[in-house]
Amino acid sequence: MVENNRSYKKAARYAIAYNKLLKMIRDGLYPEGSKLPSEPSLAEQLGISRSTLRQALGLLQEDGILEAKKGIGNFVRKTLNEDNVGMERMENPFYKGCIDTIDNVEIKMEIEASTEHTDRIFNRNTSVVLAIYRYYKEKDTIRGSCFSHVATDFDYIKSIDLNNHNEVLDFLENKIYEYGLSSTLEIRMVSATENIKEANKGNVSRYYQMIAESISDNEGNIIAYNKYYIPFERAVFKVFRKRKD
């Protein structure tokens, strides 16, 4: 019997190896973030050939359990917190899509006159807009970034001290989702331009998952437009779906 160009017997071997490795990971033998033994060592430990092991490792990588770092080895990926899973929720999408644990967010902000570009974004002239970069870090390493344009002609913005970056950051990360009524997301893969590379120093990814987010208030006015960038290898998206009765 042949299935996907593999014999049933051989498929059973790599499936068994997959399950054994998965159990080791779930039992804590290889915790999140840890490196697996070398392929020769692991193949000997499991009593299988290296080709069978590679098939099992490949499936674990496809399923988001392992991450292969070229020239270094296989690592157990950090799992997404279930509270952060679900792109259907109106919350900051960066934390839902990035597999890394962010422990610091730096912000750089400028106040700019509106342009034709921002007029198109907001579908109106806002006179002045906020141009804001956010840098998402884990242990001082940038794991992703966001560039935002925020309108200044809605009531809530008047309650924010724009000279206080912590207050502005809290608004962008949290309170804007309480104030806003709805948001739309567009997710697509983009090449790493010079601007993206500059904002994500330390990352060598050639491609990024870009999440373009438009947030509207209860009158339907767009109040913020965010572009989040996550290195392609560090991005995972999950959406909760329910059968329509």
Summarize the model shown.
The protein is of the alpha+beta class and 245 residues long. It has seven helices and ten strands.
What does this structure look like?
The protein has helices at 8-26, 39-46, 50-62, 94-97, 116-122, 165-179, 194-199; strands at residues 2-3, 6-7, 66-69, 73-76, 104-113, 128-138, 141-151, 182-191, 207-216, 222-231. It folds into two domains: 2-76, Winged helix-like DNA-binding domain superfamily/Winged helix DNA-binding domain (Arc Repressor Mutant, subunit A, Orthogonal Bundle); 82-234, Chorismate lyase-like (Chorismate lyase, 3-Layer(aba) Sandwich). With 245 residues, the protein is of the alpha+beta class. The protein is built from seven helices and ten strands. A hairpin with a 2-residue loop joins strand 6 (128-138) and strand 7. The radius of gyration is 22 Å and the shape is elongated. Helix 2 (39-46) crosses helix 3 (50-62). A six-stranded antiparallel β-sheet has the order 5-6-7-10-9-8, with helices on both faces. The protein has a two-stranded antiparallel ribbon with strand order 1-2. The longest helix has 19 residues, at 8-26.
